[in-house]
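Now for a concrete sample entry.
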Amino acid sequence: MYDNKKKHFRRSPRPKTNAEDIMYGIQPIFEALEAGKQFEKLFIQRDSSNESVAAIHKMANKAGIVVSRVPQEKLQRITSKNHQGVIGFVPAIDYVDPQNVIATAYEEGKVPLVLVLDRVTDVRNFGAIARTAECAGVDLIVIPKKGSAQIGSDAVRTSAGALNHIPVARVDNLTQAVIEIQEAGLQLVSCTEKGSKDVYYIDMEGPTAIIMGSEEDGINSELIHISDKLAKIPMTGKVSSLNVGVAAGIIIFEANRQRMMNA
């Protein structure tokens, strides 16, 4: 497990929300939902009796979007404009279908390299990992819908804009998505201290999905169980763990090194 010691910050009395991250108003959000627009979550005024707001709530539930009933004061803190009792948080990026990205990589003659992040919740870590992955030519990042870093403008900034260029898939069931990636012909390599071989002796020249675990708990045992290979990063110092972003960089560029050496 590659850990990250969390820092503690004082909570801001007002939600930090950038204008480009929200949509508000009954008609805009209703039309966006009808068009299949992705939302991180919706805030709906707790005491609203508006039938259109109720319809939005129903549509959001059907689409699997998280809806929170909140007091009007909370909506007012987010925006002082005429929100009409409903605010939607828009993803900073458009998510993709992992199978489509992998299929396209094969069609273009590439050897797919995918990065799976299991419950990496720190936004700065996620942004740094995305930056590394994009620089290294990773084809796709896969994350779970629940228990993952919020991909807003902060994550995009931390990634130095890399999240505007690298495809990201956000899936309901990470284990099932990883099984489907495996069935598409990619070997699963989990980066974990449970590995029996150093990362430098793991063959990653072929189609590969690298799995990195959370800062606190490492990789889910289900993912460990279905992995084809377990790779560990050798360490000789007194500190026995690495920041997940650093660990991801090591294994991603080791995969790249192998591919370049044997190209």
